[in-house]
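FAQ: What does the model actually see?

It sees only this:
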Amino acid sequence: MKLSSLLRWADSFPFFYLHLQNNPQDDLSHYRWILGVGRKAHRGPFHEGKWYMGGWPYEWKAPYRKPLVEFPKEAFFIPHMVFAAEEAPEWEKESVPEDFLKYNAFLGASLERPDYLDAVESLREHIYNGEVYQVNLTIVLAWEAVLDPIRAFLYLLDSFPATYNFIFKYQQKYVIGASPERFFWLWRHLIAQQPIKGTIRRGKTWQEDLFLVESLRNNPKELAENTMIVDLVRNDLQRVCVPGSVSVPVWAGVHTFPGVHHLVSTVYGERKKEVSWIEAVESLFPPGSMTGAPKSAALKYIHRYEPVGRGFYAGAIGYMSADGLADFAVVIRSWIYDKASRQLLLQVGSGITYESDPQAEWEECWLKAEKLLGALRLSV
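And it is asked to produce this:
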């Protein structure tokens, strides 16, 4: 079976969602690959015992600011056909033409370097004054482009395998991602989150790579950031979980991806029987790793210092199955494309603490963008 042929067929529907799990360190996935297609957007409440595919933009539960590409606050469809398997099939080898990007013109960044550095310094002052502990500050990069989303996804999959390689179509809009981070996993009454905080580049040799892994494992700033977000996630989960059931089986484990190493923690608990899956998601949203701590204060400062809305970036995307399994990724390392307006977006960010060096945070943003820009042959 050719993956490109399967995706072309799916793209004939107004809605489809595909994700492939490519992280051998991930031991929570039930389905290593899943595809659903649909003809109508979901409207109204969510119910147990049904399939849903799609996700929530960041502004679902955050202060609203208009994003450059806007989706509904609940962008879901009920698939009328689903294919899922514990392991991905052996895809037929194929050569994908490189003309997936017919035209592009860089339109600019939401925060240029001087504005970003000033924002980091302002956030450090808020942190020094005890108003907030950490804030995730991001930048939107925008192009006018004519893009083939299917070929773009295949190239991204080839160059950037991740925990979640996904493509989501919502009418004329696409989310094309290679996210390393799980937001929400549910199996009946078990809930898990896997926040990421802590990043370092890959080495050019295996010796340098090992040295950088050890540097990341022992970096006080990165470990403090990870601990802060783990505490935030634990507090979020305790609101919807059985008292005493929330635990952290893995703290700050190193996961390796193309271009970067990350510190990843696992936090899980047992959902209260009276709490529905959608109520649980609402209490955890937006993802703590993409806001900061305390979450309410971080949301306020993101709204103040980011000049445009995030849209699907920093939201969540995935599926809920009829048998009670939910698996949602944090929408990072992802392209947003609106075919009608020919807008192509990439957003990147970093966690700001009082110890943050503004220039180093700026460079971390571009480190995260580098591979994604290369995968689509884009420049700024």
